[in-house]
Request: fold
Amino acid sequence: MIVESLDICDYLDEKYPEKPLYPAEPAAKQIDKDVIQKIGPPTTVFYKCIFGNEDKTPEEWLKALLESLQPLEDVLTSRGTQFFGGDSPKMV
Reply:
């Protein structure tokens, strides 16, 4: 049984290539996979905010979350598109 969502997406991308989730070029696909790894820090901040017991103000949590999202925002800005995948949502 496969339980890791990224593995499932990779399988679906290979099994149903009509609507690809990743770019066809291996280098571009690797770049997208690297971008996916950048979601870890914002996720950590979010979980700490919701489930943790750190004594921070809402403003401090917002600042921490926005700082952790900045690398993703930078990638999106560099691509110059509405979505990471271009004109439509894709894997990233």
Notes: The chain has a mean pLDDT of 90. The radius of gyration is 16 Å. The helical segments are 5-15, 26-37, 40-51, 58-79.
